[in-house]
Automatic annotation (TrEMBL):
The chain crosses the membrane at residues 12-31, 43-67, 88-112, 148-169, 181-207, 227-248, 260-285, 324-350, 362-384, 396-414, 434-453, 465-487. It is a multi-pass membrane protein. The keyword Cytoplasm does not apply. It comes from Brachyspira hyodysenteriae (strain ATCC 49526 / WA1). Its main location: membrane. It is found in: Membrane. The keyword Transferase does not apply. It holds the Pfam family SNF. GO terms for cellular component: membrane. This is Transporter. Keywords: Membrane, Symport, Transmembrane, Transmembrane helix, Transport. GO terms for molecular function: symporter activity. PROSITE patterns: NA_NEUROTRAN_SYMP_1 (PS00610), NA_NEUROTRAN_SYMP_3 (PS50267).
Length: 501
């Protein structure tokens, strides 16, 4: 069985779990989760979210951990090992990661810039929304690639250098080390913000709004769709990430336990972030004399770069310090996720073509870095908005749905169950089969259908149709084509003579 050991392995179990949590805990936990809770009846959403975590998030994570652990390959090779005709699906996930990390890096670059603005005497001034869109991003109406913005480009290059250094080192020397630095720092910083947030006047009104359950919302399909969607997004399942990371696990690793720990940590982080965000929203409502719901209404990226700077302005003291801490939290959470997205792409090419890790890392990161400069233009935010919406709603949900149907119905779960139950402290039983065979695919299929109907009825974000086709609908289409084409290439054999045993 020693054929795969030249691939490198995690140095410690903690290293793997930290990296998995680092991947799962990303920007989505910080601004997407609180917004989802607020718009879906507070505590009622929390209940559905935890249900979704137990019936979809953790079962899929256990499945993806066991696919990687069993095959010792990244997504395309792993799916090919299960069935030779499934390799394309792995490459579809690789393309998705390739596209996501290109815009993800941009948001991290904004966070770094804002960390710097915090030290420079809260450079964003009183009109935080105006500063973000006009002065910092220099946005223009319509779509054109003019107005190249050096203020975004420089931090963006720094982000790519950090990602490159982390992936060149490979799993043990690069990714594990990066996560062992970033994740403990992230945890400490989050606790600092949490304490500061909860002790502000008006914080309790914000928390009341976040957690007070509106059970009438439970009959609305939107809350269920949003909860399952958020679990997918938040746990980074169906991206190929968890298959790739677990492919570096030693043979006797406890799969079920690792998945539960990762899911639990991810949920806890979302909760902490939510409590912090809503404490601060409660505080802002208190100082502005507005209802909490009105302040909370602005979710999405604007929450971090328009609402938060405004909150930082109004703090009673240590504003700059708090600003730096908050934007470092965003940056670290983003970086650990970006590293995992980049690793999926790089390891997939190494596994198939046996390229040298250093060379392939440099080439791919330079290509991605060059494309990412599109986002440093006057149309950057609009392009990012469309690409992000379509990739999250279509690429991830579609590839997740296909992956689960193929593995649960065609390949059958039996052999995975045996492996999991041999290496894990607690065993997976029929609940696991039921969730993967029926519950999750049904939810995903309904989510997808409703999204499609909705997107055909009303164009997303009111953007022109050509832009939605060029930047939005093209994403799943290119991903499918790329997947099928890459799977057609023959695997290259490694250039090393077979050692005599």
């Amino acid at each position: 069985m020693s054929h795969h050991h030249h691939r490198g392995q995690w140095g410690t179990r903690a290293g793997f779990i930290l990296a998995a949590i680092g991947s799962a805990v990303g920007l989505g936990n910080i601004w997407r989760f609180p917004y989802m809770v607020a718009s879906n009846g507070g505590g009622a959403f929390m209940i559905v979210f935890l249900l979704a975590m137990l019936t979809a998030g953790i079962p899929i994570m256990i499945l993806e951990f066991s696919i990687g652990h069993k095959t010792h390959k990244s997504a395309p090779g792993a799916l090919k090992a299960l069935n030779p005709s499934w390799e394309w699906l792995g490459w579809l996930q690789v393309f998705t990661c390739f596209a996501i990390v290109i815009y993800y890096s941009v948001i991290i670059a904004w966070s770094l810039s804002y960390g710097l603005f915090s030290i420079q005497g809260l450079k964003w001034g009183a009109d935080t929304a105006g500063f973000f869109t006009k002065e910092y991003l220099k946005l223009q109406d319509g779509f054109s690639l003019s107005n190249f913005n050096i203020g975004v480009a420089i931090p963006l290059i720094i982000v790519w250098v950090i990602i490159l250094v982390s992936v060149i080192g490979g799993v043990k020397d690069g990714i594990e080390k990066a996560n062992k630095i970033f994740m403990p720092l992230l945890a400490i910083l989050v606790v600092i913000i949490l304490i500061r947030g909860v002790t502000l006047p008006g914080a309790l009104a914000g928390l009341d709004y976040m957690f007070k359950p509106d059970f009438s919302k439970l009959t609305n399909p939107k809350i269920w769709i949003d909860a399952y969607g958020q679990v997918f997004y938040s746990m980074s399942v169906a991206f190929g990430i968890m298959i790739t990371y677990s492919s570096y696990l030693p043979d006797d690793s406890d799969i079920a336990n690792n998945a539960f720990m990762t899911g639990f940590a991810d949920t806890s982080f979302s909760l902490f972030a939510g409590i912090t965000v809503f404490s601060i929203i409660g505080y802002m409502a208190h100082t502005q004399g507005k209802p909490v719901a009105e302040v909370a209404g602005s979710g999405g990226i604007g929450l971090a770069f328009m609402v938060f700077p405004e909150a930082i302005n109004s703090l009673p003291g240590l504003n700059g310090l708090f600003g730096v801490v908050f934007f470092l939290v965003l940056s670290f959470a983003g970086l650990t996720s970006a590293i995992s997205l980049a690793e999926v792409v790089i390891s997939s090419f190494i596994d198939k073509f046996h390229f040298n890790r250093k060379k392939v890392s440099i080439v791919i990161i330079i290509i991605q870095g060059a494309i990412s400069m599109v986002y440093a233009t006057g149309s950057g935010l609009s392009i990012l908005d469309i690409v992000d919406a379509f990739i999250n709603n279509y690429n991830i949900v579609v590839s997740g749905l296909i992956e689960i149907i193929l593995v649960a119905w065609v390949y059958k779960l039996g052999s995975f169950k045996e492996t999991i139950n041999t290496v894990s402290e607690f065993t997976v039983g029929n609940w696991w089969d039921f969730c993967l065979k029926f519950l999750t695919p049904v939810f995903l299929a309904i989510m997808l259908s409703l999204k499609l109907i909705n997107d055909f009825k009303t164009p997303y974000g009111g953007y022109p149709t050509w832009a939605l086709f060029a930047l939005g609908w093209s994403m799943p289409v290119i991903a499918f084509i790329a997947g099928i084409l890459l799977a057609k290439f023959k695997d290259r054999q490694p250039d090393i003579p077979h050692q005599t045993k």
